[in-house]
Specification:
Blueprint (H helix, E strand, L loop, with lengths): L2 E4 L9 H16 E2 L5 H4 L4 H11 L1 E2 L3 H19 L6 H10 L3 E6 L3 H10 L7 E4 L12 H10 L6 E5 L2 H10 L2 E6 L13 E4 H10 L1
Parallel strand pairs: 1-4, 1-6, 4-5, 6-7, 7-8
Antiparallel strand pairs: 2-3
Helix pairs in contact: 1-4, 4-6, 5-9
């Protein structure tokens, strides 16, 4: 591998628990009438595309601006105060860089959410930080964001290793042609990561996979 691309939510930081709580307790009750999706159906998608998905497949009862504002207001507390960093992540990045790997964050989160995490935890140096909102095309689970990441890093997708924790993220990376490491924790214990080439459990196994 020439490059390692990390998803942010659920991989670099443990934000998925907080997002699932928000969606179950606030978002779905306030924006949907009738049926609700399960967590894995929307996890890994950009929140603007979550709106469009819910509007197409469910009974959405709020305007787009209100829906997006709910996410934006919640993100401030989640990323600025609540999340913690993956154990050993800075050391992992340093060791990968010592081996000549280029490093990227490739996330469905908006750029300002990613910047909050990067600044709060002093992540870096990074060769690329790419949001799904930075590309002219659909986000995860479509392959475009990982194809763009590889292009900006100057490598082929096949030369990228991608670490993803969601069904949509793993599908996106696999469809781009990358080598996909499914990252398993208690939060996503039941998530379908069958699109991944290998699945690891927690930081220690991830480190062994990437550096072994």
């Amino acid at each position: 591998m020439d490059a390692v691309c990390f998803d942010m939510d659920g991989v670099i930081v443990n934000s998925e628990d907080y997002w699932h709580e928000f969606e179950e307790e606030t978002l779905f009750p306030e924006t949907l009438a009738g049926d609700r999706p399960d967590d894995d159906e929307i996890t890994g998608m950009n929140y603007r595309e979550i709106h469009d998905h819910l509007d197409e497949h469910y009974e959405l009862v709020v305007e787009r601006a209100e829906f997006i504002d709910l996410y934006d207001r919640t993100a401030t507390g989640i990323y600025g105060e609540k999340v913690t960093l993956m154990d050993g992540f800075p050391d992992l990045c340093g060791d990968l860089r010592d081996r000549g790997r280029t490093l990227a964050i490739v996330s469905s989160a908006p750029p300002d959410w990613i910047a909050t995490v990067v600044d709060r935890f002093d992540l870096g140096p990074l060769d690329l930080v790419l949001s799904a909102e930075d590309i002219d095309g659909p986000g995860k689970p479509r392959p475009h964001v990982y194809e763009r990441a590889a292009a900006e890093l100057g490598v082929e997708p096949e030369d990228c290793t991608v670490v993803e924790d969601s069904t949509n993220g793993a599908l996106s990376a696999a469809r781009a042609g990358a080598y996909v490491v499914g990252y398993r924790t208690e939060t996503n214990a039941g998530t379908d990561l069958s699109a991944a080439d290998v699945v690891v459990n927690g930081p220690a196994e991830l480190r062994a996979e990437l550096l072994g």
